[in-house]
Amino acid sequence: MTKEQRYFITLLSDYIHGRQSKAPAYHVNWNQIASIASEQVLSGIIYQQCRKMKKISTGAKRELKEGYFSDVYQSVNSDYAYRQVVDALGKNEIDYLPFKGTLLRNYYPAPELRTMGDRDILIKHEDRKKSDQAVLALGYTKFVDNIAVWTYVRPYLMFEIHDVMFYEHLSNGVDYRGYFSNVWNSAVHVKSRSHGYVPDPAFHFLYLMAHTAKHLTNKGMGFRAFLDMVFFCRNAERVDGKAPDWEQIRTELEELSLYEFTCVCFSLCEAWFGVSMPFEKKRLEPGFARLAAEKIFRDGLFGLSNEDNASAQAAKEIRRYSGRYSISALKLMVRRVCPRYDDMRVVKWYGFLDGRPWLLPIAWAYRWIHSLKHKSRQGWALVTEPYRRKKQIEERELYLSRWGL
Questions:
Q1: For the chain, which has fewer Cβ within 10 Å, the N-terminal or C-terminal residue?
Q2: At how many degrees (to 10) do helices 201-218 and 224-240 cross?
Q3: What's the average model confidence in pLDDT over 343-363?
Q4: Strands 149-154, 197-198: parallel, antiparallel or unpaired by DSSP?
């Protein structure tokens, strides 16, 4: 890691422990620190830690300060818009349940500094049409890339309305979609809000770990996810009125094949931030804390532009077959020509499949014709990727195994 990256982690640790940060004894490039803060979407927190320092460069301080006020401004506007949206859902007798950042921010010392690119709300599948009408009536524009998630946008505001809490698979055989569809069974009604619910906090924590595993398996995840873990563990009793039952959470994590992954995450939080986490500390491979941090810095918030992740999807699929590489690669090639029903039904273009698995051959035929006509080179590259990128895929598989995935 660079000295700027090491100091950035020190700033996050200070924030967690409620300490005012001190300028480092060594020289750092403050513009790089401001750039890292922007990439990790943590400018507000970093500014709060650095605002009284005299050594910070004028340009970097201005950039961080603008990020801080942008975070606060976005939080205020987003809160107002959120109340508008859920009021509209309630008036239309639609049960709704916020999750992810809308709830996780409550565990932070300053909730407005827990940034969110969008607000996530879960509804029931049968209410999709009513909720669509209610949100569009507020002046939002709709985008649908995934039939389980409809995105609604207004200037500087974005909502994702889900009718499935978790719709992807990881690199194992666990049915996460089915598990998290049970969220309504333990959801708690919010008395002050008509048709408003919140997930059971322990259930929501399990979702947080599955969601983080999904991002790390796919493209990557920034430091914000690890701050979420730390603040939930530290402040759950204050926010929720009772301490989490960590033994029960452990049992559920084992059922979800996420206990080892959670132990790795907790051990990294301890190594990076000097905190004490609930489960036993896992002995990490030598240098892994540094390796993981360096990749998180390269990834930014979600790893979307990091070329390290070019083979992430292929590695995830190869791991699902858990056999000899040559056999797994052949199976993946076949699956890319003829994808599974569960994988295709969430894609917008094949929305007609949802609930109609017998139409799968028609979806395949449509996909083949479209690919041959419009993107034959890309299609061929995708099908042959398991053999062309064998070295990168195997390196990615090794990296995921070190995370306990």
A1: N
A2: 180
A3: 83
A4: unpaired
Q: Is residue 92 part of a domain?
A: yes
Q: Concatenated DSSP letters for 185-246?
A: HH-EE-TTSTTBEE--HHHHHHHHHHHHHHHHHHT---THHHHHHHHHHHHHHHHHSS---H
67 with 103, same domain?
Answer: yes
Q: Answer yes or no: do 299 and 330 share one domain.
A: no
Residue 53's nearest CA partner among 67, 33, 81 is 33
Q: Average pLDDT over the chain, rounded to whole?
A: 91
Q: How confident is residue 394, by pLDDT bands cut at 50, 70 and 90? A: confident
Tokens of 197: 């619910």
Same domain for 87 and 185? Answer: yes
Q: If pLDDT is split at 50, 70 and 90, which confidence band does 281 have?
A: confident
Query: Which one-letter amino acid corresponds to residue 51?
Result: R
Count: domains in the chain = 2
CATH number reported for the structural domain that contains residue 150 in this entry: 3.30.460.40
DSSP string, 381-395: HHHHHHHHTHHHHHH
Range of the domain at 9: 3-304
Q: What is the pLDDT of residue 193?
A: 93
Q: Are 283 and 260 in contact (CB under 8 A)?
A: no
Q: Residue 351 above 80 pLDDT? A: no
